[in-house]
Design brief:
Blueprint (H helix, E strand, L loop, with lengths): L1 H19 L8 H10 L4 H17 L7 H19 L5 H26 L4 H6 L1 H27 L1 H24 L1
Helix pairs in contact: 1-2, 1-3, 2-3, 2-4, 2-7, 3-4, 4-5, 5-7
């Protein structure tokens, strides 16, 4: 329920905030939520969140349905893959993961729109590299306070401490069995 609520708030923010403040049009709130959920180390949850975020984004836009869904699924999977290989509690690792996911998201949407023959005014007016850079910087700037707020909402610190405690108990048991 928390994830669905976060996605609905992100979809609302993504569709309404650029109308009042046009500079916020480069923020991808749904991508930020997808990457955060992907960092929680649950692959099914990351992929379902990416799919739902993409469908919400496509439903609120003019483009074809499914392109943003695929881009968000790839971004969510990248976040999950990195979180399964690296300890992601540090801010730098989270920011690097978000940077990679943002670039993959933008490139996927651009390439599919290009293959399908749709025009994207953002990419044509500014150029692809500038659009990637602006989207990346906007997402990184907002991600730190947003991720802190989501940490409080999902209480990931408590969950991480309990996982570490379980792992330590398992290590103690293994050492004890070796001694016997």
């Amino acid at each position: 329920m928390k994830i669905a609520g976060c996605l609905l708030v992100a979809a609302f923010a993504q569709t309404t905030l650029p109308k009042t403040w046009p500079r916020l049009g480069h923020l991808d709130w749904l991508l930020l939520v997808t990457v955060y959920i992907g960092l929680m180390r649950d692959p099914a949850q990351a992929l379902l969140t990416g799919t739902a975020a993409g469908v919400l984004q496509d439903a609120s836009s003019i483009g074809p349905i499914g392109v943003s869904g695929l881009a968000k699924v790839l971004a969510g999977y990248l976040a999950y893959w990195i979180s399964s290989k690296v300890y992601v509690e540090g801010v730098l690792v989270r920011l690097m993961t978000l940077a990679g996911a943002s670039v993959i998201n933008t490139l996927t949407i651009y390439s599919f729109y290009r293959m399908l023959g749709f025009d994207l005014p953002l990419y044509q007016a500014n150029g692809l590299m500038l659009a990637i850079g602006v989207n990346l910087l906007a997402n990184l700037a907002v991600s730190v306070p947003l991720f802190l707020a989501l940490d409080r909402l999902f209480k990931t610190g408590v969950r991480q401490r309990s996982r570490r405690a379980e792992a330590m108990r398992g290590m103690r048991r293994r050492r004890w069995k070796k001694m016997i």
